[in-house]
């Protein structure tokens, strides 16, 4: 609660006390501030509301004389309380600065030092009057009395009665009780109806949330409201109260309320009794009573622990506080870390921190976890829980101790008893030689890791999500880059895409926009139209599975957003459009050799999804529009894994609606189980299109050619395949092979179709291809 003591010429409080029906008349009355008015920290320092309860103007920075901020505060009580601050991240101003309602209709701060005025209200239209209302709202009006701008719509850390936190709006606490700059936490009214508190980091995601109203899926326009009796609740578009945070109190004259997110990350409802002498703000309700709950309360390499409800941030063993008495400064090692020096492990029970492990050992024991960390030069600490050992590097953040948590933390420290037989690596034999070897191996590993780290450096550095994972079941130290997709906030995606400006594609599952990441990498941002209405967690798990698929013939998923009701996916950007764009455009058509390369690329991508992923993925929608071409015209499959996220019936119905019937395997229409062979069928159709450079259905062609599959089989039976490629010069043997592969793929009976592995071997020409059977059921197949 930011308060200050400021002597006014006449105390307003008695005036307020005498005006008994303060709240009833509050809305009607307003002061009239006209163009040309000005304020200065000394002299007339604020504009009051008619009742005198609220004021807009200069307020002094706590504990620093001669420094002021501009804001709205409760002026009518001895404990002056700030409820809004302008340009909170700018430095405070000096006594010589003035606030001016200038002739252009803007409220500006005129500095004695700088020539440029700085705007207080970021409105482009010019106002003709302003008013400090008794509700605590400072408003700018145009000449017709229409509201142009109001502090109620640009809250900082406080919500007043009748003020609404509307969808998409955030409250940020101050850094401390005395510093109003944007602090380490945020409260957002999300587009999915959920009111959530996050650690204010960039980008923040679900894993950084520490409080939520759990009103997920209650509509896309839910708002947080506070009424005059201290009733804090969520309301949907139709004005229905959908969730009570507080019940509200019996109306009491002279009682005022406000909701504020404090610098410790907890938001609280306060009350103040105007009628009582020397009253103080009382906490009526708080979002949590556990002051270690806010994620990131403590700095790096320390952890939050409650001492009699008071949070403390002790450093990890072997670490010292960077700046004494400053929680946020974090801790650092009190020695210069030596790679692979003589180390020991310290144990912290019930303690954990953010999981950004580079290495996970599963089905292990505490003892093995300790040993593994000791033996790995990169391991600075490990978290052990439920037979999993997660190894991490520094810094460790969001640490906390919680007796309800069974995690055990192991922290590597210098071994004070290095000569003792308990020291690590106490192996029989020539210890010194072994030691030397270990150092060499460690250095080698460190160099390898350094090189990979540099490759992915920007990524890792920016987002702290880089991690390496050992491939389980493979004894050798095989590392594999594993950069999990990032969770973006909606605001970030808006920024990345410049407000979803440049649309580059539109498909059945959503619209795609072009964007760029902070590091300049171009991305395609896809807004999904239809997604499972199930929990975020499921979606996120799925995203992680899909995000872990890495193959040169799959479009990489870089991130996603869960913040709004519509899910958003971020992919790498493919500059050459889709296969459909080049294949069906006579000016861009690739030649035969290129086309065969494309067919093999697609087959490899599908093979990976079917056989080589952690979980088998059936694409369900292989078609030229979903195959994208990068700048080297290398084909990559996109939208894979989307099928897993969609409801099964959705997948089915939208394939029907879309008019891509030609690619759909017959089992879809027969209510048979869908297997990987459905993708094989679709691939066969795409392969025919690649060979013939035309769509599978083309009503503009002569009757017998409209359905590509039928026509191809006719030509195949008549031994007249060259008709299919018209005047293109093509190796006849190769053409026949390709046609045969495609005809095998599009057989009606799923079990007769070859596996993708077989298909690839056939395309590569390494196996004999038998004559395909007569697919007489073509007509029923499409
Ligand atoms: C505010 O004052 C201006 C002139 O000073 C006047 O024209 C205007 O009508 C007043 N507005 C209100 C709401 O009193
Ligand atoms: C303060 O404002 C009043 C009118 O509101 C004016 O009469 C007075 O001169 C002003 N004082 C200073 C120091 O500007
Ligand atoms: C501000 O000053 C008050 C006394 O005037 C003191 O109790 C408080 O600790 C100070 N706060 C800071 C952050 O210096
Ligand atoms: C304010 O102005 C006066 C006179 O112009 C000057 O003496 C003083 O140093 C200035 N104060 C600040 C904080 O700039
Ligand atoms: C608002 O909530 C009520 C009650 O839950 C519900 O009947 C109504 O459909 C909701 N309105 C919207 C727009 O979601
Ligand atoms: C959102 O809901 C509020 C009421 O809670 C309503 O006043 C406002 O018009 C709604 N906005 C939209 C865009 O529907
Ligand atoms: C919220 O509380 C009010 C009484 O203050 C009650 O009438 C209403 O039904 C409650 N709404 C919900 C959603 O619990
Ligand atoms: C309230 O003020 C009275 C004197 O006016 C004083 O005796 C009393 O201790 C004060 N109460 C509190 C809680 O500060
Ligand atoms: C590091 O800290 C530990 C415990 O806090 C202490 O025993 C040790 O002497 C310190 N080492 C150095 C080099 O300061
Ligand atoms: C605490 O440390 C942080 C980070 O080092 C710094 O930004 C902040 O100003 C410090 N706060 C105080 C009160 O010293």
Written description of the protein model:
It is a single chain. The protein is α+β, with helices and mostly antiparallel strands. It has 4 domains: 1-154, Agglutinin, subunit A; 160-297, Bulb-type lectin domain (Agglutinin, subunit A, Orthogonal Prism), CATH 2.90.10; 303-417, Hepatocyte Growth Factor; 579-781, Transferase(Phosphotransferase) domain 1 (Transferase(Phosphotransferase), domain 1). It has 16 helices and 47 strands. Strands 1, 4, 5, 6, 7 and 8 form a 6-stranded antiparallel sheet that branches. Strand 10 and strand 11 form a beta hairpin. Helix 9 (592-612) runs antiparallel to helix 15. The protein is globular. It starts with a strand and ends with a helix. Bound molecules: 2-acetamido-2-deoxy-beta-D-glucopyranose (10 copies). The site of one 2-acetamido-2-deoxy-beta-D-glucopyranose has 7 residues, from strand 23. Residues 340-415 form the Apple domain. Residues 1-23 form the signal peptide. This is Receptor-like serine/threonine-protein kinase.
């Amino acid at each position: 609660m930011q308060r200050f003591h400021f002597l006014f010429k006449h105390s307003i409080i008695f005036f307020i006390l005498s005006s008994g029906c303060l709240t009833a008349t509050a809305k009607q009355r307003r002061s009239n501030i006209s163009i040309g008015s000005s304020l200065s920290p000394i002299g007339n320092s604020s504009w009051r509301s008619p009742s005198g309860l609220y004021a807009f103007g200069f307020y002094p920075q706590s504990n620093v004389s001669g420094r002021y901020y501009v804001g709205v505060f409760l002026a009518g009580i001895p404990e002056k309380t700030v409820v809004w601050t302008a340009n909170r991240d700018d430095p405070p101003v000096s006594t010589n600065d003035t606030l001016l309602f200038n002739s252009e209709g803007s409220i500006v701060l005129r500095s004695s030092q700088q020539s440029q005025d700085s705007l207080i209200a970021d409105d482009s239209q010019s106002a003709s009057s302003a008013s400090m209302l008794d509700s605590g709202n400072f408003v700018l009006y145009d000449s017709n009395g229409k509201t142009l701008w109001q502090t109620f719509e640009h809250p900082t850390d406080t919500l007043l009665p009748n003020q609404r936190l509307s969808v998409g709006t955030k409250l940020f606490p101050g850094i401390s009780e005395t510093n109003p700059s944007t602090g380490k936490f945020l409260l957002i009214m999300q587009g999915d109806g959920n009111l959530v508190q996050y650690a204010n980091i960039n980008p923040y995601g679900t894993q950084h949330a520490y409080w939520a109203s759990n009103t997920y899926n209650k509509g896309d326009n839910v708002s947080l409201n506070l009424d005059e009796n201290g009733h804090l609740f969520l309301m949907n578009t139709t004005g229905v109260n959908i969730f009570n945070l507080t019940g509200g109190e019996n109306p009491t004259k002279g009682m005022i309320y406000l909701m504020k997110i404090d610098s410790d990350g907890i938001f609280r409802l306060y009350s103040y009794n105007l009628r009582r002498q020397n009253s103080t703000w009382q906490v009526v309700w708080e979002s949590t009573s556990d002051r270690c709950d806010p994620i990131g309360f403590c700095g790096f390499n320390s952890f939050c622990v409650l001492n009699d409800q008071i949070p403390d941030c002790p450093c990890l063993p072997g670490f010292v506080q960077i700046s004494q008495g400053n929680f946020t400064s974090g801790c650092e090692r009190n020695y210069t870390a030596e790679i692979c020096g003589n180390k020991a492990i310290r144990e912290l029970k019930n303690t954990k921190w953010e999981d950004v492990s580079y290495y996970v050992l599963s089905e292990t024991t505490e003892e093995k976890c300790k040993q593994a960390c000791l033996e790995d030069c990169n391991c600075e600490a490990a978290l052990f829980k439920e037979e999993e050992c997660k190894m991490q590097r520094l810094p460790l953040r969001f640490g906390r101790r919680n007796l309800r948590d069974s995690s055990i933390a192991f922290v590597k420290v210098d071994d004070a008893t290095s000569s003792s037989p308990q020291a690590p690596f106490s192996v029989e034999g020539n210890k010194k030689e072994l030691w030397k070897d270990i150092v060499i191996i460690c250095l080698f590993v460190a160099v390898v890791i350094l090189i990979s780290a540099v490759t992915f450096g920007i990524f890792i550095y920016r987002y702290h999500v880089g991690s390496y994972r050992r491939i389980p079941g493979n004894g050798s130290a095989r590392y594999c880059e594993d950069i999990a997709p990032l969770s973006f906030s909606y605001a970030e995606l808006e920024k990345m895409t410049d407000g979803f400006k440049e649309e580059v594609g539109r498909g059945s599952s959503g619209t795609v926009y072009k964007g760029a990441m902070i590091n300049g990498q171009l991305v395609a941002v896809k807004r999904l139209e239809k997604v499972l209405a199930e929990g975020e967690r499921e979606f996120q798990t799925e995203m992680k599975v899909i995000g872990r698929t890495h193959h040169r013939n799959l479009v990489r998923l870089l991130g996603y957003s869960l913040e709004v009701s519509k899910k958003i996916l971020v992919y790498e950007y493919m500059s050459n459009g889709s296969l459909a764009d080049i294949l069906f455009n006579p000016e861009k058509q690739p030649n035969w050799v290129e086309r065969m390369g494309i067919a093999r690329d697609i087959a490899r991508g599908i093979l990976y999804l079917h056989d080589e992923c952690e979980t088998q993925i059936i694409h369900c929608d292989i078609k030229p529009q979903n195959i994208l071409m990068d700048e080297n015209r290398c084909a990559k499959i996109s939208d894979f894994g989307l099928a897993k996220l969609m409801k099964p019936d959705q997948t089915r119905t939208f394939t029907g609606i879309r008019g891509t019937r030609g690619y759909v395997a017959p089992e879809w229409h027969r209510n048979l189980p869908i297997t990987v062979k459905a993708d094989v069928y679709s691939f066969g159709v795409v392969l025919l299109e690649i060979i013939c450079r035309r769509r599978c259905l083309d009503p503009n062609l002569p009757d017998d050619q409209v359905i590509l599959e039928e026509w191809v089989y006719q030509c195949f039976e008549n031994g007249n395949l060259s008709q299919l490629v018209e005047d293109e010069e093509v190796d006849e043997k190769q053409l026949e092979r390709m046609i045969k592969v495609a005809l095998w793929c599009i057989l009606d009976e799923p079990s007769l179709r070859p596996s993708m592995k077989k298909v690839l071997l056939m395309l590569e020409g390494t196996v004999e291809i038998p004559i395909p059977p007569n697919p007489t059921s073509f007509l029923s197949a499409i």
